[in-house]
Structure formats: structure tokens, C-alpha cells
Design a protein that fits this description.
The structure is a homotetramer of 311-residue chains. The first copy, chain A, is of the alpha/beta class and 311 residues long. Chain A folds into 3 domains: 97 residues, D-Maltodextrin-Binding Protein, domain 2; 76 residues, Periplasmic binding protein-like II (D-Maltodextrin-Binding Protein, domain 2, 3-Layer(aba) Sandwich), CATH 3.40.190.10; 126 residues, 2-Layer Sandwich (Alpha-Beta Plaits), CATH 3.30.70.260. Chain A has 10 helices and 14 strands. Chain A has a 5-stranded mixed β-sheet. In chain A, strands 7-6-8-5-9 form a 5-stranded mixed β-sheet. A 4-stranded antiparallel β-sheet of chain A has the order 12-13-11-14, with helices on both faces. The longest helix of chain A is centred in the last third of the chain and has 15 residues. The first copy, chain A, starts with a strand and ends in a 5-residue tail after the last helix. Chains in contact: A-B, A-C, B-D, C-D. The interface between B and D is large, with 41 and 41 residues. Chains A, B, C, D: Its EC number is 4.2.1.51. Chains A, B, C, D: It is an enzyme of class 4 (lyase). Chains A, B, C, D: One of its GO terms (cellular component) is cytoplasm.
């Protein structure tokens, strides 16, 4: 049976662009689906090998549903992340010049992200909302609008000329995507990994959150993201979603996870996977006393004192 | 000059429904705008008295942009929150029966939220994406589609008959809206208030977050929401957004805010305002030793020992 | 070679009384020495098998030297504790009646502890300081004084009649003694043990102490004693002495010790040994999530998620 | 009525030496008493203006009783501390040479502190225990012994020649004394003060101690001493004795004390008084964000945001 990847469609959006950066997907069948829940269900049911969905998406606002579906449904694991710069272009049919653009199609959040550029470069253009970055490209290609704000991949796919690139107001904004599969042993540690967790806390007391963070802190496990989400099931129950620096196979992370398992009402392991790094980046070193060597030294010492060797 | 409220449009959505629950807006001019930034800028510039925007919106995904705009732009304050149940209905022109529905218009996130209901009640209907809950209602009203998933206010406004109500899969889901004004003294404490903050932390160490949470915990200030957001400006700088239980005028909150001011790289006060409560709800009492009486007792004691009175 | 126990002398004091409660010492040679350092050095050099010395002594004030010697010298381990009630008696030669007592010999701290009783029962007696509880008994036996405040064992040994017993002002006061040997595997866990540690912290910041306590707290390890001692070696270096509830062989204590090893400048393991319990006492149960079963469950869960089993 | 200082006698010990360093005592009547409780009771009853007693005494082991009496009895306050180096000398009658010393009188803890020196310089001398450093000096002066280990003040008072000075094994050891009065407003802050507290905690959980330390830590209040003492009254109740850096009149300390007052079962304020500093010493600066300027800035900010000024 062939490998099949599903992704949040339609074709020609940033999610497809992210999918194309994943080597395992190169020779796979690639199927766009209409929603994140649909993508994840296709993996759960075995129809798809893996799904690629946005998780921190300054454009599409898909964060909430992805996190909620991962935390609440039957188990899935994240095996890879892909981070893309938010890299909007203005595309138009060949022959259309920037000066001639009077109408622009854009997803509402795309136009919001390019507000300053639009005000400066196209102060008189009428911007019309469409349903996706891809729909914007299509409607420029078919002549419904003079131009479209879209992803580079969308411009290429629908034969648009790029009139302007990097038009998003915030040059550092990025969108983050996850590759999700059925439960499986995590990929090998690379020395710079992310572990994602959903932790359920029964009362909204700050003390409970402090206790969870302390489990990380005492082992030198760093956090790069935290988000609380109310659960509908029961008032007063919160899910905390954490992205931590490290891998479940490492002692520090193993200890921290065990500690959280003991104290939380419930904890869902969402995966350990390599951190996506831009060229030139380097992992943050652990704080003093929290290196792998420090963990190994402490374990050796414990073995010795348990045996009566205090030398 | 008359009072003007702007809100995230279009008309006929949950945001307008939230606006109609605000007494101060009853006699005001009510103007829908295209985006959250536009709404907030209208307040900043003085064109509008106040804005009503979604902040935790399981439907529209508008959370990120609202928080980012409040945290980063020139100062605004939240003066009220409104919480609505996510209360979708299926609306159709008079005369259309549920059994006859073959085509449904819906915002993609609305159809995602009603997935189970659609699968059961309308397994064969074709669902088409439209740009908003309001656009869905309009397109059912004008005959483009047999029915629409929309807000009750949208069904009413466009003359639709409600074929089914409470069709969202999660009966407890809610959407939260904020009323935002230019800086002003906060409303009087009510005994059950929320204080919102944006805290900037320069390194992504869990220790910095622990320190902030500890400032809350030692004063018995509880949290009901926490979210981290990367800032585009600088890699490694995070904004944490907190909703805390209490009011800036109270000693416990005053002490906590001062503590965070001392330790954080930057902290933005976003407002103290009454918690929206459903009928029957009651505020969570502070932990032992953290009541108003305990604070008053401790202050009296300190005054006495400073004066040499140890009785 | 026979077994030899040394103890802080002279004979006839509470320390000898503690020694007599230790089964291993029943058939051993028992040798009083003049000071705690002398007792410990005799063990270090191999001249003695074990030493019995006071550690929390409301009478003799020997705490500091015992702790300092254990923390700083070449390694020794505590293998047992003995706790005695502070149980002073007034002894006199046969024939002397309480009404006839005009002069009393007492160690200064013994008379301090019996101050109220002396004021009531012997308001006119002259109390003279002597060097030890044992010296007091001897000087009553030889007629230098009418009576002596001493330990029951001292009265018995020197043929004194007990004119009054339980004359200490605080009926709950106790003295605690340690049995110390050369490094050896600790005694088996009993389910109610004490682990003693000396932790060196290079700066006198409260943060460092908080960090050490947190290592205990997150594993549900309780403390029954904490004491800070300046080190003479270097200004600003502190030794913290801890008595913790639990045994080094237990997972919770093992993890806590490793954590402290990683963060402290130096940590000296002083032993795991059965808690001395008075009849009727029972160990405090661990807090929620910190039982042995919770630790075992968390370890099993970690093994499963590392293998990709998320069921 | 004249000013009267009582101090732990006898005359000629380190406590008298400490007393002579206190300017207020220069013209006062100075009365030695037999015990710390007697000294403190003389202040409580009004017989004495102030008492000088040892509190961290590597020689006399008087720590426990001083702390217990201050924590438990009717209120007294510490108004000054004096720290003396442990500065033993070997004194003898004029004409006696070191080489001729065959017998030495010493308090047992004094000889313990000079053990190495005795072993090297007087390997064959017989050391006999006496009741105090002062008694040692007297017995050398009257010819009962060839020499005495004593305080410099004792050698001077009893006409002894100093044969050797600084003979204590640990050159950095110090003894600390407190001047105690009836409750009164504390001395003015000097910028380098100590505040002493006794905190009662009803259960021996490490969590309670962590909570108290956190109150200090979040305000940048440092600790220089911590000690736990069981209370006889009730099993499971502990007193923690703290010496903190700072003064009750300062905002940071005021906040911390109020926080502890709220959470502890009971807290006894024992005084704020200037830290005794050796020449050349300088106070440790507060951690980042905890300076007086930081506290003032945070207070100003709070006043502004409460008034609606977010500039």
C-alpha cells in the first residue's frame, strides 16, 4: 500500500508548502482535506499515514482546534514540526502591473497581516475577503480580481506573476506546522528536540500550574510555549499545552514527565521530535548542574552511596 | 457627540450579539468593521468610544490578533467582558423542512464545530464554506443554499426559520468578547473581577515564568488563563498573557502587580473588569490566609511592630 | 576482635542511657570519651566500631559540634538514632529527705531546665554548677552536696535515692542521639526512616535554599529538621543540615538526592536509618501523587510512552 | 534610676567582652547572671534595662536556650548584635613558661576548639575540665593549674600572662551575641540591618517552609540563618528561626513580613538591628529588580495604573 499524507487544504496554501519540506512525503500521495479534525481522523482511521496541520498559525487561526483535537481525541503523536516564515506575495496575471491593481482578493487574516503594506503601496485598491490564500490566487488567475495576496506556492501553482514579495508587516512572523501519525516510538533524539504535552488540571488554582512548571524547572527542562485551554466537559478543568525543550528518551525529560504524571489529573504525551531550526540557530545550553554529564554524575553518585561507598 | 461602538463585523454574528448585551451600547451608534486591528485603531484614534472584539473564540480564531494588538499597540484598556455560549442554529427560508435540506452554507470553523450533528442529521447534505456566519445566513436567505449554520441573531436578522438549535457538538463551548476603551480608571471592584496583563520575558527560561506565577501565588491571586506568544521583534522574547482573578484596586492584586513590575522586562496592564457570570455561578473564595481580612490583619500587625508594639 | 562502642562521657549521663537502648551494644565494650570529636575520631581510626553522641541535646548543647564534625571530617554514616525524654531526677544519699535539702549540685543547663521546679520545691536551696550530670550525682553521693539533679542512670549508678522525678519544666522535651559508624551500606528500609544530609551552598541567597527544598518538595520528601551553619573556611559559604523522611534506597529519595547533587556546591550523605518512634506513633503518609504506587505507576507509564505505547 | 545591663556570667568571659563593645553600656551598671533565662527575665521584669546573651556560640552551646526563650516567652526585642572572633589565649601566672606547663584548666568546649593546638604545643599536658572560661583563668591565677585556656578579657582580669594567642583551631570561628530589651520601636535603618523572626508552622511538611521562604525570595529578602526547633507543646509543631537581611521599616521587608503573617500559624517579630560588620565588609546588594529604587518605581506605577494613567 502506498504512503498517503493528508493536509489542511486547499492546495496552494502554506500548509502544502510545509508538506513539501518533509522528505518522507516526497514520494507519497498528498491529499488536501477540509479541516484539521478531518485530517486527524484520517490518520486515526488508517486512511492516511500522516497528517500535516498548522498549529501556531498567525494567518489561519487554526491553533485552537489542532491542539484541542490532539489533546482530547484518541492518541496520536507528533513526529515532526515545520516552521515557515509568513511570506506573503502579491500575485497577478501576467501583464498586470502594480500600478494597475484596483481590486485585491485576500483571506481576511492575510489582508490584516499586510495592512501597512496595502496602505502604502495600494492605498486606493478595494480588498475583498475570500475563503483562503489559495482561493485568492485562483480568483486573481481567473480574472475576478486584479491581484491576490497569497503564498508563493499558490502564485506558482496558478500561474501568477509576483508583483511584490515579503509584504507582511511583521518580517519575523512564522507559522508552525505539525506532522502527526498514529502512536509509534518517537524519532531518535537529535540533541535539539521538542516534547509536547497536554496536562489536565482539575482546579484553576495557580498553585497547580506552579507545581507543573516546577517539575520542569528542577530538571532544567525549558519551555518554549504554554497555553491554557478550558475544557468544555466540566467547568473548572483546564488543559495546559506545553512545548518543552528535550526528548522523552533523555533522563531529565523522563524524570520531569514522571513527576507531572504523579501530580496531574491527567497528562497526554503528544510526541518528541526534532526542533525545526533556521540556518545558524543553535540550541540553548541547559542551566548549570543540568547537563547530561551532571545527570550521569548524580546517578553514579547515588549508586555509590546506596552501596555504602562515600569516597 | 454621540457614543459610537465599533465591533468585529459583519452584522448578524456572535460579536454583534455580544455587543447587544452591553447596557452602555444600547443607545450608541453600532458600527461593524472588517478586522480587530481596525476596531482597536478606531478607539485609539478617537473615532469610536469603544470596541467589542472576540478574544477567546472557538469559532473565529481571532484570539491571537486581539491579544497581540492589545499587548503591543498604544495603550487601551479592557472595561468589560461578555461570554456567550457557542449556540449555533440551522436556519432556512420559511417553508424549507429539515428533510429537504441538500445544501448548507457555513463558515469552515462553524461546520467543524457542528460536525457530529451534520453527520447524524444531514449525512447527505453538501456543506459549502463561506466567509462568516453572517454570510452563511445571507446566502440561505437569498436562496443560494437550502440552509445555513449561523448565530441566532443572524437567523433573526435575515428572516430565517430555525430548523434546529444548539447543534454545536460541545454544549459547553463558549466565546468570549472584550469591550475596549482608551485608558481610564478601571470600573469599581465588584468582588468578582478579572485583571488582564501582558508580561514580556526576555529569555524563554521556565524559571522566569515560574517567578511571575509565584508573585501571583504568594498573594493568593488565581489565574484563569495563560498564553505565551512569541514576539516577532526579537527571537527569544515571549509575551505571556494572563487573566487573573481580582481587581487592581485590591491590596493582593496591587502587591502582585508591583512584584511582576519589578521582575519582568516589561508589563502592560490591560484592565480590571467584572467577571461575566452565568446565573448561579459564585466566585471562588481565596485560599486560607489570603482573604481581605487576612490582608488587613497583616497590615495592622506590621504598623504595630514598626512602632514597637509587640502585644 | 571484640566490638567497641565509644560514647560521650562521663559515665552515668543520658548518653550512656541512650547507648544501653541499642541492641548491638549489649555485648560490646562501652568506652566513655571526653568529647564528640574524640568519639568520632575513634571510629574514623578504627579504634572503635561505633560512636554514640548527642545531636539535638536540649541539655548539653552538643548539637553544633556533632553536626560540624559529621559534615566536615572524613566520611562517617549515621546508622541509628535514639530519642530520650529529658527525664531529670533529684537524687540524694539514702536518708536525706527533700525537706532537708539545702545544697544542690547540677550542670548549669540542667538547673536551667528545672528552674520552675526548683523555685517551687526548693526555693531556699543553693544550686552550685558542676561539669556534668554525672559529676552532680557523684558529688551528692560523696556528700559534697545534699542532692543532685541528674539522669536516672546516674542516680542508680552512684547509689542515690530518687527524691523527685520528672522535674524538668518542659515534660515533652527530648534529647536525640546518633550511632555513627564508618561508611557502610545503610540498614534496610523499614518504611519509616530518616535520611540526613549536609548541603554546602556557596552564596547565602535564599534562592539557593529554596532550590534545595524544592527538590524535596516535588518528590514528596518531607523534612523534620533544617539548620544552617556558617563554615569557617570561607565567608559566605553555608552548610545546611537536613533530616528528611525516607530512605536512600527509595525512588523518591533517590531522585531528590540526585537533584540536590546536581545543584549544590557539595552534598554529604550522612545516612539513612530507622526513625526512633515512641509507642503509638505512626509515620506521616506521603502527599497525594507521591506514594510508592504513584512512583511505580509513573515509571511504568514512562517506559510505555518511550516505546510508543500511548494506550 | 541608673541603666543596668545583665549578661551571661561569670565575669571575664567572651560575653562580658561583647558587652564592653556596646556604647550604651559604657556607663551602665553591668551585672553577670547565671543563665540566659535569668538574664532575659531580668529584662522582662524591669530589673534590667537590657541583657547581653550569646546566640550562636561555637563555644558555649547556648544557642538553643536563647532562641527558645526569645521565641516562646513574653515579647522582647533584639536591638543590637555583637560578633566576636573566637579568640582563645593560653594564660598563666607571670613566670610560668610554655615549656613548663604540665596542667591546663579549660572549659570542655574550649579545649575541644583548641584540640590541634594542644596536641602540637602541649602534647603531654593534662587538661582538666572546669565550668567556664572564667573559672579556668581563676584556677590558673590561684595556682591550681599551670595554665588556662581563656578569653583575653579573662587573662587580663585575673593577672595572667598570655603565653600563646589565637590558639583556636579554626581561625574564622566567631561567636555572636545579642542585646535584648523590652519591646520598643526598632533602631533606625542603617542600610545594612538584620531582622530576626520566629515562625511557627503546624505541620512538618516541607511545603510550609517553602511557602515561608518564597515570601522572602519574591521580595529579594536574603537569609543569613535558618534553624528549626521542635516545640515541646505539641508534637508536629515546629518553630523556624530566621535571620534576614533588611529592616522592618523597609517596604520589601514589610511586604515579606505581612505575607508570612498571613500564611504562618504564628510569627514572632524578634527585632531589626544593625548588622555587625568587620572592617572592610560591605553589604550584599539586592538581586536585580529588588533595589529600593525598583520598589519605589513599582509603587509609582501601581498608583498610576489605578488612576487610569497607562502612559
Amino acid at each position: 500500500m502506498s504512503t498517503r499524507f493528508v493536509y489542511l487544504g486547499p492546495e496552494g496554501t502554506f500548509t502544502e508548502q510545509a508538506l513539501r519540506l518533509i522528505p518522507e512525503a516526497a514520494d507519497a500521495e498528498r491529499v488536501p482535506v477540509r479541516s484539521v479534525p478531518e485530517a486527524l481522523d484520517a490518520v486515526r482511521s488508517g486512511e492516511a499515514t500522516a497528517a500535516v496541520v498548522p498549529v501556531e498559525n498567525s494567518v489561519g487561526g487554526a491553533v485552537a482546534v489542532t491542539l484541542d483535537e490532539l489533546a482530547a481525541g484518541s492518541p496520536l503523536v507528533i513526529t515532526r514540526e515545520v516552521v515557515l516564515p509568513v511570506d506573503f506575495v502579491l500575485g497577478a496575471r501576467p501583464g498586470v502591473a502594480l500600478a494597475g491593481v484596483r481590486t485585491v482578493a485576500a483571506h481576511p487574516q492575510a489582508s490584516a497581516q499586510c495592512r501597512s503594506w496595502l496602505r502604502t503601496a495600494l492605498p486606493d485598491a478595494a480588498v475583498t475577503d475570500v475563503l483562503s490564500n489559495s482561493a485568492a490566487a485562483i480568483s486573481a488567475a481567473d480574472g475576478s480580481f486584479d491581484a491576490a495576496i497569497c503564498a508563493p506556492i499558490g502564485a506558482a501553482r496558478y500561474g501568477l506573476t509576483v508583483l511584490a514579495e515579503k509584504i507582511a508587516d511583521n518580517p519575523d512572523a512564522v507559522t508552525r506546522f505539525l506532522m502527526v501519525t498514529r502512536p509509534a516510538p518517537p524519532p531518535e533524539p537529535t540533541g535539539d528536540d521538542v516534547t509536547s504535552l497536554a496536562v489536565f488540571i482539575a482546579h484553576d488554582r495557580v498553585g497547580a500550574l506552579l507545581a507543573v512548571l516546577t517539575e520542569f524547572a528542577v530538571r532544567g527542562v525549558n519551555l518554549t510555549r504554554i497555553e491554557s485551554r478550558p475544557t468544555g466537559e466540566q467547568l473548572g478543568v483546564y488543559i495546559f499545552l506545553f512545548d518543552c525543550t528535550g526528548h522523552v528518551a533523555e533522563p531529565r525529560m523522563g524524570e520531569a514527565l514522571q513527576g507531572i504524571r504523579r501530580l496531574a489529573d491527567r497528562v497526554t504525551f503528544l510526541g518528541s521530535y526534532p526542533r525545526h531550526r533556521f540556518s545558524g540557530g543553535s540550541p540553548v545550553p541547559p542551566p548549570p548542574g543540568q547537563s547530561d554529564a551532571d545527570f550521569a554524575d548524580a546517578a553514579t553518585w547515588l549508586t555509590k552511596i546506596r552501596a555504602g561507598d562515600l569516597s
